[in-house]
């Protein structure tokens, strides 16, 4: 019975036409191996899904970090461009100036406009408040009275947060379209770039004295610029923080910057005729400018060593007077010449006195330098809108 049951099962195996080759039998996986091979194929979609979730989570985290950095920058107040605009009674010019500035600066992304109202008595403050309600990038600093352009620039620099600071006047004579050119020069490696009003749209009563002033300043300082007093300039932020201006020294910011070790440049800029109002500067600014030039030379080269300046000339005068009187004294004792009728003798005594006075002034200057207070403010701010 057992043999009869085994025959039907073994009989169909013999008539197979294409029996499996030994190689095929070796390659065919066993049942355990098939399970091991099927298990990765079932786990692969799950692993890919996990990878996608991890990538998505990583992208979300990166996005959160990027947004956090942007928010942190906004909290820190960091901006790329700051424009400082001193103004005095420019009510009619401000709306047009704002529109031109916005058009010129929109390509740079982040910027701020700092208007420093230097004691205006017209409706300038009202116009600035209207602009601020429209655009929070407008900042307003208002003085209690007129303190001058240097004070306005100084407080504007102190409140500027941009990496590059632009200064310009509010009378529409400076063209905001030149700002990209100034910034391009800054990015080439300059620390300060001054505008040059090559074709100036001002009356001859201003252009001729200005040329003479610029020529004398260039000769006395050794800095080859055509226009020291152009209001349109671009600065790296560290220049505005390092160079201190007061009085009427805003005309000599390039001088102060170069003597402090910064690299300065100059490019021609377009200049327009005044459209509204009248100029705030008279002819008196030129003779004041030359006095300020002496101030710049003294404060930058001899501020910490005033005795080197006054002492040098004091010694020169003293020795000249002493030599004259010694010569006359020798003549007196050698030839018996009278000194009472010799004006040169009195001149020698006068030189000795002047020399002693110069040396005394130098010593007093040294004492003042060692005891003078620092960080004095020469202006009073009524309000600040940031």
Tags for this model:
alpha/beta; Spore Coat Polysaccharide Biosynthesis Protein SpsA, Chain A; 2 domains; 13 helices
Written description of the protein model:
The chain is elongated, with a radius of gyration of 41 Å. Helix 5 (124-134) links the parallel strand 2 and strand 3. An 8-stranded mixed β-sheet has the order 7-5-6-4-1-2-3-8, sandwiched between helices. The protein has 2 domains: 76-301, Spore Coat Polysaccharide Biosynthesis Protein SpsA, Chain A (Alpha-Beta Complex); 306-371. The protein has helices at residues 2-10, 22-27, 31-76, 94-105, 124-134, 149-159, 179-187, 204-221, 237-242, 253-259, 284-301, 306-335, 343-371, and strands spanning 79-87, 111-117, 138-143, 162-167, 192-196, 233-236, 264-268, 381-385. It is built from 13 helices and 8 strands.
